[in-house]
């Protein structure tokens, strides 16, 4: 059976670290924790799980800390998690099976990373990340912030899911923004990837004009990953909306089509534009497009599930209601309810269509 080292970097995680370690402690063969300066009970809690606790002086470099944690591993494969991640029971079983079945020629295994959930616990946003890697390949982390693990060779995708479960009372952090600004003040030239993520940080903190500048710089490099190019167009549209520039919002929504096949989010965005213009046939076309190829949607590394499930069906219910195709509208509302039965608009529509169809 494959042996696994769990490698983590932590700081002041007393509220979540036990939950994370409980979810994998009996699956991994070694737990390695690198602490970057905790002042709470984090290390005390960790000491009940492992003696392999290392201190690492924080230097505003996530990749350096993660690489240090990987250097301490001794088992065949390395699994990495963050302190506010958790693997639930169903996925623990999948991870156990993966550990049993993993072939030695596999260099890295990706897992679905579930980032956000609605009040029913339904996943609303997810992406794939390479979580399990062969130690002897010496894969390294790259990037001071929003770091990524550079993998290659024989890659595999698993059905294991990791859930991101941060504390609900966490305040937005300026840490990443400050690291990027420190890089710039030192004269560093941001890579295309750093430009994109710096723009994201600026947008998340409400600096829309500055975010626009860096999204445009990112796209001008013509070296961005296709999905990031499309996401940059969508985010530019959102920035222009925040600034009240509706024409530019429209332009950048449409421009995303120049970077690749229309993705569900792009289709929904275009559908909304036509819905606002009361062009219901055109809107319906784009919402139908959003749900047209579910198999292809599953291959996207970054997914907002709402855009390929309940949301386009709900909007199709609106479109077909306006077009007086009430039975078809009701069918789409019921399909939306299959995904999100408690969504207020869907519930209200059910009452509405019951009366309309009776009439």
From TrEMBL:
GO molecular function terms noted in the UniProt entry: glycosyltransferase activity
Source domain of life: Bacteria
UniProt xrefs under InterPro entries: Glyco_trans_2-like (IPR001173), Nucleotide-diphossugar_trans (IPR029044), TPR-like_helical_dom_sf (IPR011990)
Keywords annotated in UniProt: Glycosyltransferase, Transferase
One Pfam family per UniProt: Glycos_transf_2
Sequence ranges assigned to domain Glycosyltransferase 2-like in this UniProt record: 5-106
Annotated EC: 2.4.1.-
Presence of keyword Cell inner membrane: no
Name listed for the protein in its UniProt record: Glycosyl transferase, group 2 family protein
Species, as recorded: Lederbergia lenta
Gene transcribed to yield this protein: sunS_2
